[in-house]
Amino acid sequence: MGILEARRFFVTMLHALDARASPDDNTSRDDRAGGPRTHGERINMGFGDGLFYFPTQHVYGKPETHELTYESVSFDSTDGARLHGWFFPAVGSARGTVIQFHGNAGNITGHFESVKWLPSESWNVFCFDYRGYGQSTGKPTRQGTVNDGLAAIECVQSRGDVDADRVVVLGQSLGGAVGIVVVAQCSSVRGIAVEGAFSHYRTEAAFVCGQNIFVSPIAGLLSRAMISQGLDPIDCVASIAPRPTMFVCGTNDRIVDHNQTAALHAAAAEPKTLHVIEGGGHTDSMCASEGRRWFLDFFDACLAR
Predict the structure, then answer these.
(1) With CB atoms 3.0 to 4.6 Å apart as the test, which of 14, 134, 203, 219 could cross-link to 210 if both were Cys?
(2) What residues contact 215, with CB distance under 8 A and at least 6 apart?
(3) What torsion, rounded to 10 degrees, do the Cα atoms 279, 251, 5, 68 define?
(4) Residue 87: beta bridge partners?
(5) d(CA 186, CA 129)
(6) Measured between alpha carbons, how far is 189 from 192 in angstroms, rounded to an integer?
(7) Facing residues of 131 across strands?
(8) Spatial contact of 244 and 302, defined as CB atoms under 8 Å apart
C-alpha cells in the first residue's frame, strides 16, 4: 500500500461509515446487511474489508525490459476464479522456487521488479495476481486471497520443472499477511519471509486512519466498526513452526507500523529471525545488497533443514 492508497483507504472508510450511519429509510437493517447474520458470517463480511484492496489492470512494467526469461501462466483458484501469473526460471541449476505474494495495490507488472534479481541468484520465481488484479478474474476478498495463495502453491508444485520439496514464500505488505495464513495451512512449503507485514487487519486500518489528526482519536473505533476479524496473521504465525520464518521491517514505514511486524515475530515460534532497519521505509529492504543477502541466506537455511 503506497501513500496514495493509504489516503484513499482513509477517505473511503469515512465515506463508508457515513453511508452506514445514513441508510435508505426504505431498507430494513437486515436487508441492508444481506439478511440476519451469524457471528461467523460477520467475520467474513466486514463492510470495510474491501478497502484493503486496490487492484488495477494497468501495465507498469514488462519482463522484456529487463531481459528476463518468463512464462505466462493461467490457473484456477480453489473456488474457480481464473488467476494469472509469471514464472521466471532460474539462471542455471535452480536452488529452489520462491513464490511472491505481492502487496495490495497494482498487479504483478509492478511488483515483479522487486524480485527480478532472484533468477540470477539461481532461484525460480513465481509471481501471481490475486483475483481482480491484473489479468486475474473476480473480486478480491480476504478469504479469496487465501484461496488464491493456496492455488498458486499447488500450481507451482505441480510443474515438471520445479522441485516441489524446495518451495519457499516471500510475502510483502498485504502479501505477508496473506502468505502467513496460507503457509500455516500448507505444510509442504519450507518457510516464509515477510516484509512490512501487518499483524491484524483491524490494527492496520486503525494505523492508517490514525495518521489523520482529526480522526486519530477514533481510529480504533472506526476500524472495529468497519473491519471484520478472522484470518489475521497473528493468529496463524505460530503454527508455521518448525519451519523457519523471517520478518523484515523499517522504523520509518508510514504504511505498516513496524511494531506490527515485530509483533508477528514475537508471536512466531522458533526458528525465527527479525531484521529491523533503522530509518527504513515500506518494503524497500531489497534495494540494498545487505537486504538481498538476508533473503538469500534465509531461503538457503529453509532448504537446509
Answers:
(1) 219
(2) 10, 14, 209, 222
(3) 60
(4) 71, 126
(5) 19
(6) 8
(7) none
(8) yes
Q: pLDDT of 84-141, one tens digit each?
A: 999 999 999 999 999 999 999 999 999 999 999 999 999 999 999 999 999 999 999 9
Half-sphere exposure of 256 (CA within 13 A, CB side): 31
CB 101 within 8 A of CB 126: no
Rounded CA separation 122/112 (Å): 16
For the stretch 264-287, pLDDT in tens is 999 999 999 999 999 999 999 999
Q: What is the CATH number of the domain that holds 86?
A: 3.40.50.1820
Domain count, the chain: 1
Domain that holds residue 150: 3-304
Contacts of 105 (CB under 8 A, 6+ apart): 1, 2, 5, 54, 55, 56
Q: In whole angstroms, what is the distance from residue 43 CA to residue 129 CA?
A: 24
Instruction: Tell if the pTM clears 0.90, that is, is over it.
Output: no
